[in-house]
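User: For documentation purposes, I need each entry recorded in a consistent format: the amino acid sequence on its own, followed directly by the corresponding structure tokens. There are two entries in this batch. Please keep commentary to a minimum and don't merge the entries.

Assistant: Recorded as requested. Entry 1:
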Amino acid sequence: MAARPELYPATHDLIHLLLAYSGLDAFLSALADRTGRRLAPLGQPDTALAVYRRNRPVLTAGAAPSLVRLTQERLADDDVYLASALEHSRSASEERLPDAWASGTAWGVDAGLLVVPVPAGPSATAALVLVGTPPADPGTRRAALALLGRVRNEASWALRMAVRLADETDLAEHRAHAMQNRTVIDVAIGVIMAQSRCSADEAFDVLRRASNNRNVKLHTVAAELVRRIHPELPQTAFVD
């Protein structure tokens, strides 16, 4: 299990966020807002979060719509700073905004860019994007980095939990869909057995050959056959 962050005064609200939002999209938006508020002492930087799960589009969220849109654009262009965090788990920074990040924005000439990887579990990667004016004083900069590290760890813990829940939800839905498909196929096998007086294996071979010959999914062929008997497909009953 992911290590729980140290109990700073603001940590308890992460648990409330996890309980309040069941979908990863909505949770990420709430977490991004919370992250922005936590990092406000750094000089009110604009912040955004990006989360990538295998075989899914990258999710982005943040309190500043302009930075969220820009992050999405940079993701589409395979931005090296975002790739450093999302693909290689390395931070990337520039004292001055790179041209690709500065175009069309109004952050000022002193604004810089910082992209920090946020561990999100074995099936996802995440990045925290900050745009703002870096502290000039060394002591202030050390304090800022310490705060950033704490907030990053808090976000990491929450994202690990949220991604794990999303993965389990997706898996349950996939299994339910597979069971529903299997029910239709089993009924079709029964229909063929009754009509052709053959075994279950022979009936399945008939379905499989029809599927291959027509280049149509097995479930589609089975559903067409079952609908000849009754217009409504059988439903798999799940017990809560």
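Entry 2:
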Amino acid sequence: MKNMDTQLLGNISENILGLFPIVKKKFFTYGPLDLPLHLSPNNFQVLLLLREVRLSTVSDLSKQLNVSRPNMTPLLDKLVEHGLADRQSCDSDRRVVNVAITQEGDAFCEQVFHTFSNKIQERLVYLPEEDLLHLSETLNELKHILLKIDNAAT
């Protein structure tokens, strides 16, 4: 890798890392009690992953989220308790427990996304239209570029 590439990659990584606290501060100043059903952000993260994969083993969930299996248990217990996820035993291996998102879990995610979307829009409404257009174009381009990463890395 050339020196220019190293500098460019360093600059990009610093800017990406610098965006996280800004986005959190400007749009997501919620705590555990602000999520419906008093779910913690960790509970919601598990639910979002389940929404993406639909069905997974507890082991795979814990690996993907970098959470130990014993710590996954209370996170999943709360989701199951509220009917957002369901535990299912594996027919081929009784030692394996699968977890699936329920219809209620999907609806809950939609409700939270709608709430967060409204909060974001409430903050953005004060920006001039020129800034909003530029932000929209920039975010679309950023998303397009970032989605290439998995393809380029394989």
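Summary note for entry 2:
Helices lie at 3-27, 41-53, 58-65, 69-81, 103-124, 129-146, 148-153.
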